[in-house]
TrEMBL record:
Similarity remark: Belongs to the DNA photolyase class-1 family.
Name of protein: Photolyase/cryptochrome alpha/beta domain-containing protein
Swiss-Prot/TrEMBL GO biological process terms: photoreactive repair
Keyword annotations of the record: FAD, Flavoprotein
Residues involved in FAD binding: 274, 287-291, 348-355, 445-447
Length: 546
């Protein structure tokens, strides 16, 4: 593990969430239902509960459906051991320690917030297809609600649960509810299987023809919960078989997540400049950092994919979220400013929707070497090359800094992800799935649709109208880290060099191996100095972001 000290990490990507003046944590968050993660709400008696008129807004359709059609609701989370096995082709840990820690914090937070809503969270270790039927039987539940999933592993679990419930034979059914995208699948102006192959066509069609659904109102309390003897504990990393990382993450970065919106939008007022900053790599402020929570289906009070006109949001020093689970871009636009930047966050979120819908259309081809376009090509699986990329020891500071950031924090900027993806596939000539699976291990925001969608796109086997999108390291360094601040932050040995040498250190310092690259730039340290001489001379056919 990297020995980088992050004890006062002003430039840490999640630094923003460690602000003490925000310690009055905003009210509740509820997250819920994903078949893979199986946060499942089981209900018993189907009777609408409408006695409490102090309404809160909820955008979790599965939770709403479960609550509104039941008398008693039992939220369940199954810690599925399959989440902690290994990745499909290359046997990396399926969940790295950082995401494991994040997940556990989210679970603890979920339980706390459900309790504030008159509920609780039952935590069980085991496979959902074993746990849920037995719970359904014990509690007499007639329906298990879960969010509908789209990728094969998750669909497999859905099928197993469905079968197991049927086997038990007491009439309990599995009801899958669509959630987590900004636009509802049923509102698309085309059948999802006819999804346009090009993002821009998708975006234009959706923007012209669809509306984002509003949130639903529910009472403050959505209890009562059934009587349960043992609700189960949130496990430690050790119990999950994960090694705690030897890094000093900013305290409470995870549990203050709701402040993402407060800080980015209101306190720091960064939304209005997002379009100019979004290609940054260093620090917390260049982009929203929503992704880890969106990936875990954390429906925040305040951060959600939905729009609501009846939200209550009070920006200010005693900032609190009251009420709605809404996405605040429109609100910010009304109250402060509407410009290209405010629109651009929605533009990016629409990419997320696109990859989710695409995963339905493409099915398993998203995970195949040739990708959805079934491209025939030759890629190597050279272990040594891959390890130099994984460990941040290629000799290219821009690659190495990004990879060190990933393994230390579980995060990498979108710019960085595109650069290291292009490098792995087009410079190293490696099988893109090695990179995708390593991202699967490390990313806090790992999501199969966005991860594999972006990797196939970047590798030239997916939905990119341009077939060989190449990111030249010299050009990227020049455009996005001209002072070498980013690389020097993550590769300590570069700090003592003058700024103009940081991307081109010559024969150096931190590399174990000399890596010969496919494009013939030379190898390792030698390659770094060679690249420096021809700075700007390499082909970079990609100047903007998609
Ligand atoms: C090779 C590669 C792998 C990726 N893997 C993942 C992944 O596993 N999970 C994931 O959430 N994102 C993934 N992304 C997309 C993107 O890099 C991250 O969503 C983004 O960097 C997260 O930071 P942010 O929340 O500050 O983003 P912002 O720039 O603030 O964008 C706001 C939100 O828009 C969405 N978004 C932005 N760009 C994309 C995109 N290209 N694709 C899909 N959604 C997007 C995210 O939900 C993000 O939180 C990947 C990109 C690449 C190039």
């Amino acid at each position: 593990m990297s020995a980088l000290s992050l004890s006062s990490p002003l430039t840490h990507p999640f630094r923003r969430f460690n602000l003490h003046h925000l310690s009055n944590k905003p009210v509740s968050s509820l997250f819920f239902c994903s078949a893979a993660k199986m946060n499942v709400h089981i209900h018993r008696v189907p009777e609408k509960l409408q006695r409490n008129h102090d309404l809160r807004v909820l955008d979790n359709d599965a939770l709403y459906k479960a609550w509104s059609s039941s008398d008693t609701l039992l939220p369940v989370y199954c810690l599925d051991p399959r989440l902690f096995h290994t990745t499909h082709f290359f046997s990396f840990p399926k969940t790295g320690a950082l995401r494991g820690a994040f997940l556990m914090e989210c679970l603890a937070d979920l339980r706390k917030n459900l309790m504030r809503r008159g509920l609780n969270l039952l935590i069980r270790s085991g496979k959902p297809e074993d746990i849920l039927p037995s719970l359904a039987k014990d509690f007499g539940a007639h329906t298990v609600f879960a969010h509908e999933e789209t990728c094969s592993e998750e669909l497999h679990v859905e099928r197993l649960v469905d079968k197991a419930l049927k086997r038990v034979g007491n009439g309990t059914k599995l009801e899958l509810i669509w959630g987590s995208t900004m636009y509802h699948k049923d509102d698309l102006p085309f059948d999802v299987l006819d999804l346009p192959d090009i993002y821009t066509q998708f975006r234009k069609s959706v923007e012209a023809n669809c509306r984002i659904r509003s949130s639903t109102r529910i009472p403050v309390s959505i209890g009562p919960t059934p009587c349960v003897d043992n609700w189960g504990d949130v496990p430690t990393l050790g119990q999950l078989g994960l090694e705690p990382q030897e890094v000093n993450l900013p305290e409470k970065i995870f549990s203050l997540y709701i402040n993402v919106v407060c800080l980015f939008f209101y306190l720091q007022d960064l939304l209005k400049v997002y379009k100019e900053t979004r290609n940054g790599m260093l620090g917390p402020d260049y982009s929203t950092k929503f992704s880890p929570w969106l990936a875990l289906d954390v429906s925040l009070l305040g951060l959600s994919m939905k729009r609501s006109d009846h939200s209550n949001f009070y920006p200010g020093p005693n900032m609190r979220f009251r009420g709605s689970k809404t996405f605040y871009v429109q609100r910010y636009e009304r109250e402060r400013i509407a410009n290209n930047s405010t629109y651009w966050v929605l533009f990016e979120l629409l990419w997320r929707d696109y990859f989710r819908f695409l995963s339905i259309k493409c099915g398993n081809s998203l995970f195949h070497l040739g990708g959805p376009r079934d491209v025939q090509g030759e890629w190597s699986q050279d272990k040594r090359l891959f390890e130099s990329w994984r460990d941040g020891k290629t000799g290219y500071p821009l690659i190495d800094a990004n990879m060190k950031e990933l393994s230390t924090t579980g995060f990498m900027s979108n710019r960085g992800r595109q650069i290291v993806c292009s490098f792995l596939v087009r410079d190293m000539g490696l099988d893109w799935r090695m990179g995708a699976e390593w991202f699967e291990t490390c990313l806090l925001d790992y999501d199969p649709c966005s991860n594999y969608g972006n990797w196939t796109y970047g590798a030239g086997v997916g939905n990119d109208p341009r077939e060989d999108r190449y990111f030249s390291i010299p050009k990227q360094a020049q455009n996005y880290d001209p002072e070498g601040e980013y690389v020097a932050f993550w590769v300590q040995q570069l700090r003592r060099l003058p700024k103009e040498k940081r991307h081109w250190p010559g024969r150096l310092i931190y590399m174990d191996t000399v890596v010969p690259l496919k494009h013939g730039h030379g190898g390792g340290n030698a390659q770094a100095s060679r690249v420096s001489k021809s700075r700007g001379g390499f082909r970079d056919n990609h100047s903007g972001r998609r």
